[in-house]
Amino acid sequence: MTDRDQARLTYFPGSPFARMCRVLVHEWDLPVEPVEHAFPPGPEMYAINPLGQVPALILGDRTVFPTFLVLETLWDMAGRPDAYRPDDDRQPLLTVLQMGDAYTAACYQRWSGLGPVGHNAVGYDPAARNLERVAATLDWLETGTAIREGLSMTGVALACLCLWADAREGLDWRSRAKLRAVVDALSGRDSFRATAPMAWSYSGT
Ligand SMILES: N[C@@H](CCC(=O)N[C@@H](CS)C(=O)NCC(=O)O)C(=O)O
Fold this sequence. Notes:
This protein is an alpha+beta fold and 205 residues long. Helices cover 49% and strands 7% of the residues.
């Protein structure tokens, strides 16, 4: 059995990062078995990925993480289709993924009910700053050339984050016409329909 035959992908049903990978597995019909894990993750997740996070792509005795490398590996397994052009796409893809880290960090800070516990020696609110980063990155994508129509890895990453925001906290991404067109088109694909996150909202109580 080759590494490719043994491929497994860890995911939580709600995870936007894992969804990017699940979408591509679906789109490219890759022999990768999605393996669902419970959220919040237990300590056993650290044995798979030292960051304790999904997604991780298990290829025999090699485990690939974080998301960026999982996406590049899936693209490689698919025969390097045009959905990713590394010279042009590496920077925007990584930037979108880091925007996702900033956005999820801001959301989780709020959903965990945490507030100030002492003097703020940093000079800004990290959650607010993360949301500023998200807005600035969306503007950068809207005005630049990084997002292409159709199936692209950067577009898939962006769409999974925007649609996760719709299913959770809410984020004003639809006011950006180019991003809206790309995300709306992707969201109608079977791969997106098959991997949609369940709705959830923070009640604050
Ligand atoms: N920067 C990470 C982000 C992955 C991530 O945030 N995964 C979330 C689910 S969307 C997770 O596993 N959260 C559990 C935790 O952080 O303990 C990557 O690129 O893989």
